[in-house]
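Full entry
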Amino acid sequence: MNLARKYVEGLKEAYYENGAAKLWDHFEKVMHGAEKKDLEKLKALYPDIPDSLLQLLEIVDGTYWRKYGGDTVSLLFLGSDMEEYPYYLLSAQQMIDTKDQFSSWGDYLITREYDDIPVDEGICDDMDKLCLLHFSDCTNNGGTSQLFIDFSPSAKGTKGQVLRYLHDPDELVIVADSFDEYLQMLMDEAYDFINEESLEDWE
């Protein structure tokens, strides 16, 4: 079993253990993986995209107000280093559509415009070199936090590292050195973003 499949199986158990089996079963019934053409587009835009993310998208093509047939799915699927804080997984097409979105508003973080906003040293300071794959938004439609895979690190960073953007107070930090490490972190934390409080609005 690859890491992506192992992650999804563990997430299913977390839903069941928190009394949300009905919610998961409906999701499992309607969802499907990304179309091959969308994955090929994503790979063309991001040649270094990790296999584990592609494998995840082959299982489920997003949970962020994602239409599967006649059903619109909004399902908590990911977390971060912020304890118990839930995120959605974007679809392959959403990842493609938001390719340059960060550059349109996040320049103040990359250029270190404000001394009081934390930005990890492993993140580059050159907008022209910046290459981020936006793969996740938090539950308030990304207004508070977003997650990225960074293919343009500084000399102190690691290519493929996972970044978390947080708003108010703003910061841009590295949460894992790779997407594999990121998924393993969520598994090691026992999917703590799936709990009675986070599932309250979905019951």
